[in-house]
Amino acid sequence: MKRNRLIYAGVTVCVLCAAVLFTVLDGGEDTVRYHQHLEQPDESELGEKPESDGLVTHLPIIEIDTTKDGVYQKIPGKAIMDEQQNAVIGEETGENGETEITARLRTIEAEGEWHDSEGEADNESDILIHIRGNSSRAFDKSNYRIKLTGDNDPLQKRSLPLLGMEKSADWVLHGPFLDKTLIRNYMWMNISAEIMGYAPNVRFCELILNEKYMGVYVLVETIEVSESRVDLTQYEAGDPVMSYMIHIEPKAELDRSVETFSFYAKKLEPERQIEIAYPGRQDLTREVKEYIQADFSEIEKAIYSDEAGSDPDFYLEYLDDTFYNAFFEFNKDGEEPLYLLQGILIQDAVNYGTGDAYESDYMGQLQEDGRQMIDVIHGNRLIMRSVPGKGSGWYTKDISEWVIGFLVGSEWSGNTVAYTDHETTHKGVYNGTYFTAGSEAGPFEAMLARVMDEITEYESSKYKEQHLIGFANSPATDPLEYRDDYGELREKYAYSGTTGVTYARQLDKICQIDAEHIRTTDKMKAGYFAAYSLYDFCEDFYRYLSEEQTTELADILEEIDREGSYDGYAELLGKYHTVPVVCTSYGFTTARGVVSEKGFPLTEAEQGERLVEIYEDLCSTGWSGAVINAWQDRWELRSWNTAYAQDFTNNALWHDIQTEAQGYGLMEFSAESRMTDGDPGEWGKKDIVCENNGFTLSAYADDEGLVLLVEGDGISPENPLYIPIDTTDKSGSSTSRTPQLSFSRPADFLICIDGEENSRIMVQERYESVRANFLQEINGEDAYISFPSADSDVFLPINMVMENTTIVDYVDYTNRGLKYLPVYETGKLRHGNGNPEAEDYDSLADFCFGDDCVELRIPWALLNVANPADMLIHDDYYENYGVDFIRADSFWLGIAADAGEETEMHEFPLKWEEKTYTERVKQSYDIVRAAWR
Question: What is the Cα–Cα distance from 793 to 878, expressed in whole angstroms?
Fold first, then answer.
C-alpha cells in the first residue's frame, strides 16, 4: 500500500498511544483488508457446538498465563488512586519494581471452526506485558501492551501472524470498557482504513487471563514500518521532501523531540511531547528536525484551524453604493451629521485558515481591500460585481470628511498570530514611510505596520489626505501574557514531581499583539490609535499574569480599580497605552439564554444601564470613546450552546430568544402576536384549543414561541395549573411521577404554573436535549451507554450548559471535574408584564396573571423545535446518536389543576403563516441616547 502523502491520525488515538505518521510513498497497491464481521463464519455456519469443560466460541481465543515460580504475577501499570478514589496518583509496578513482566501467550484461532480453550494452540510465545493507557488504567477492564519474545529470552523479538494479521512482535489488547457496544474502535479502524488506505488492523477475540475469563477484547496492530502498513521511503540526506514518523508521548527523549505548532499554541496536553520515531537518531540533524517541525506545524494548523467550521461568506466589509449614497445625502445638509469608522476586514476563511499572515490572501488582501476602501470613501470607485462580504456599484459620493478613520481587521485568530510569530522566515522589523515596527515587535505586528503604512501611503499620494488608522485587538490577542510555566517547572521534558500552572492554556491565550510595538513617523499627521473589543475574558485576570509582566506593570496594577469595568482590565489598557485607546465593540444581550456564569439574562432596561455604566467608566479611565457592537438584533447569529439544536434553513423568519448572540441590538423586530400581559382581549374563539375541567386553553404560534392563554374561575398565583404538551410520538409518558398526573396521550413536556416565583416548564427525561448532547461535558458520563426509556414517567427541569470560567492551577485527567460545564435552569419561567407599552414592562417576562386568566409564551427552543417556519422538531436522540430533525404537523395540549382525573389532550395544528415584522427600539436605546446627549 503506497500513497503520495498519507496522514494517519484520529481514531488510532483511541487504541494506540497517540501516533501520527506522515510519509512520502510511491508505487504499490492497497492491501485488501479483512473485515471480520463480514467474512468470519458465524455460529450458525460452524455446525454443532462441541462439548468442553473450557470456553467454546466462534471468536478467536487468546490465553495469557503470568505464572512465575508457581504464582500468578501482578501485571504492572494499574492506576493507583487517592483515598477518595477520585484521582490517579501513580501506577503499580511489579513485585521488584518492574514496569512489565514476562508471561506466556497462546492463541486458538483456526478459521472456519469452533474455538475451544482446551484445544491445541495455533500460535504460542513468551511475551512481555503491561497495562497501557492513560485514564483507562483505572478501568475494571484493562488494556494491555504485548511484546512477543523468544522462549526464555525477553530481549529477543519474535514476530507471529496473530489472528490472521501480518507478522509482528508488538500488539495491543484493547478492552472496550466505556463502549458497551464493543464495536466503536473496531468499526472506526476499519472505516479509517477504507478512507485512508491504512489503519491498524483489528480482530475481535475473547481473553482468558490466568484461567479467568476476561470478556471480549480487540487485538490491534501497532503502527510500524512495513510494506503493508506504513511503507516509508528510505531517508537520504539532502532530500527536499522526506518521510517521517512521529509519536505523541507522555515523555519524549530530548534529542528526538520537536516543538511544533501544537506546542507553542498550547494545543497539546501539558504532560505530552512530540517525539520523532523516524528517521532514526543517527539521521536527526538540525536540518531534519527543522523540516519535520515546519512540515508538521502546517498540518497541525489545518487540524486546529476553525476554517472548517467557518462560513467563508460570513463577513461584511463595505456595503453597496446605495449605503454610501444615502450616507452622503443625510450628511450634506444635516445639522447633526453621522460619522463612520470604516472597517477593513479579513475574511473568516483566511483569518482562521492554515497559512501565515504574510501570504497573499492574507496580507495581500488587506492591502488591496485598504486601497479599494480609500477609493470608496472618496467617491472614486466602480465595482462591477459583488463578491462575498463586499458590495458593488458606482461609488461616486465623497464622504471622506465624515470618516473618522480606518480599523484594520476584526478579531484575529490566535492560531494564525502564533504561527506567524514562530515562522523563522519572517522578521519583526519594518521601516516604512508612515509606520515602523522596531526590534521588540513580532512578525505579525510588523505585518500590521506594513499594511497600515501602505494604506496611508495610498491615500496620501492619491488624495493628499490622511485619516486616523488603527488595528483591531481583543482580550484573546492583547499585550497581556498569562503564566503557563508547566514546562519550566517540569524541566521541560522530564518528570520531576512538580506540577506548575497552565493559566494561558486554560484561557487559550497563546499570543500577544501590542500597539506600542508599532510607531508612527513624523509624516503620519492624522494619528494612530489602539482599538479593542471588550467582553468578559478572565475574572481577576491580574492574578494569572506572568511574573515578568506582573513586575513590568506593577505601577499600573497598583493604581487600577479592580472593581471597575471588566475587573480593572479596561483601566489597565487605558493607562498602559501611550496612543489613544478606543473600544470598537462592546455590548450586552437581552436574550433569554445565557452562555456564561458571568452573564445572566438582562432586561432591556438593564442592558441600557450596563452599556452606559461601561461607557462612562471607559471615558473616566482615559479611553477616547466606545462603539456598541450592534444596532439591531441579528437573528442569523448562533451561540455555541444552542446551535446544535437548530436548523438554520429559515432562521431569518423566527427569533430564537434562547440564543445569546441574537439579542445584542438596541432595536428588535417582532411579528404580530399576543401580548403576555394578563389581558385576554387580543384572543378570539378561533384560538381556543380545548375546554377541560372548567378551564379554556387557547394557543397561538408566533415568531418566538408558543403563546398560551388559560382562562377559568379561580386562576391565580395561589392555585397551580398544569399544561401537558405532546410534540413527538417517538417518546413521552402518559403519567408524571412528580407531580403526580396522568394524561390521555404521552406528553413530552409539562408546564407547571405554581405562583410567580416557582413556575417552570419540564421535559420528559428521554427528550432532554442537554443530557443527550452534553452529559460527557457536564459530569464525564457517556449519555449513550445507558439512557432513559422512551416512556419514562420522570419529568426534569430544562437546563442549558454554560462556559466554565473557573481557572485552576493545572488541569489533567485527575481533576478534570473542576472544568465540567455548569448548567442553568433556563426552563424556569419569569412572571411579569410582557407588553412593551406598559409602564411595568419586563422584556424577560414569560407569563403574566390577569383576572381569572394567565398568559404565557414558551420559546420554541424549550420545546425542542429546531425550525418553526418548517416545523422541524428533534427526533429521538438515542435512535440517531444525537440531534436529527423530523416534521411535526401538530402539538397536543391539555390543562389541569390537580392530580385527579386523567387530563384530556387536544390537537393544536401547526401552520406557519406569513408574518409582517415591525421594528421597535428597546428601552436600552432611550437610556443610551439620554446618556450620550
Answer: 17
